[in-house]
Write a structure and sequence with these properties.
ion transport, F1FO ATP Synthase, 2 helices, 82% helix, ATP synthesis, transport, ATP_synth_F0_csu_DDCD_BS, cell membrane
Length: 93
């Protein structure tokens, strides 16, 4: 019974950590995208002749911000479906 309780504890703490990871990652990505778009619009309003150069850099940085969140979601999926922390625990023993 002790192994089963340990397994349940590891899975519950993992679920809490995964929820925090996705939630805070999404929050950070949204804030980063908002700040980036606001800065782009501010720069485009001040110097309209540089819109094409600013737009290239903004799209590159927006892609990097989104990629960091997508990588975090991939790690969360790994821990959700194939948790390496529970591999050594056998609940029936």
């Amino acid at each position: 019974m002790e192994a089963l309780q340990f397994l349940a504890t590891v899975q519950s703490y993992t679920a809490i950590g995964l929820g925090l990871m996705v939630g805070l990652g999404a929050l950070g990505a949204c804030i980063g995208i908002g700040i980036m778009c606001a800065s782009f619009l501010d720069g485009a309003a001040r110097q309209p002749e540089m819109i094409s150069q600013l737009q290239t850099k903004v799209f590159l940085l927006l892609g990097l911000i989104d990629a960091s969140f997508i990588i975090a979601v991939g790690i969360v999926m790994m821990f959700a479906f194939a948790n390496p922390l529970t591999m050594g625990v056998t609940p029936g023993v």
